[in-house]
Amino acid sequence: MTEQWGKHMEVQMIESKELLETVEPFEIRHLLWGTERIPKTYGYIGFVKGEGFYLKLVCLEKNPLRIYKEDQDPVYKDSAVEAFFRFNSGDGARQDIYLNFEMNANGAILAGYGKNKTERTPFEADMLQKLNCKAEVEEEQWNVSLMVPIEILECIYGELYLKEGTKFNCNFYKICETKENEHYASYEYVKSKNPNFHLPEYFAEAVITAGNKKKI
């Protein structure tokens, strides 16, 4: 698994989405706010030049809670995985904007952008379609995959010139807010007294690299 303390998270450049699972995986393993354990959850993220970021999150969980079926439903009440991103824009007015992508085992996604938890702009239907969120449920595990196109990022931030060496911020989460199965975990540790993933000051630092490809 990718080392995640004291250094940048490396997001490797890949030639195509089919090579996503050749990169070094990362694990969501910081248990938060009284959580004692979660099903093992890990992911892959890669960057395809001219296209965008490809992400796959895998959870080793049987029979995940998955009530919600429609996009923009409150999927965080189900067993869900989440990815938050913040990019550096030359426009100061957009500098603090971050994106949230929250997904359950039905492939339903809650997605938006803004500067804090309460002021979020939901993704429109055409933007959600371009994310191409898909889920697969197997006997012992489930996973979701997502594509974050450069086109969408630049609609929000303006031109980003994403390339090898570009730095940005991100964090990844495992969550269920339903009391019977309530749990919280993150990739980068969140120093908050109360459950809240909308704290970009605790996002990990990430950098796009050419990197070596490794298999889990």
Radius of gyration: 16 Å
The helix-strand sequence is: EEEEEEEEEHEEHEEE
Q: Biggest β-sheet: count, sense, barrel?
A: 14 strands, mixed
DSSP strand count: 14
Q: Proportion of β residues?
A: 35-45%
Global geometry: globular
Structural class: mainly beta
SSE arrangement:
Elements lengths: L8 E5 L12 E2 L2 E2 L9 E8 L3 E8 L20 E7 L11 E7 L4 E6 L5 E3 L2 H7 L2 E4 L4 E8 H8 L9 E10 L6 E4 L17 E6 L7
Parallel strand pairs: 1-4, 1-14
Antiparallel strand pairs: 2-4, 3-13, 4-5, 5-11, 6-7, 6-12, 7-8, 8-9, 10-11, 12-13, 12-14
Account of the 3D structure:
- The protein has two helices and 14 strands.
- It is globular and about 45 Å long.
- Strands 1, 2, 3, 4, 5, 6, 7, 8, 9, 10, 11, 12, 13 and 14 form a 14-stranded mixed beta sheet that branches.
- It has 216 residues and is mainly β.
Provide key terms for this protein:
single chain; 216 residues; mainly beta; 14-stranded mixed beta sheet; 7% helix
Outline:
With about 220 residues, the protein is mainly β. It contains 2 helices and 14 strands. Strands 1, 2, 3, 4, 5, 6, 7, 8, 9, 10, 11, 12, 13 and 14 form a 14-stranded mixed β-sheet that branches.
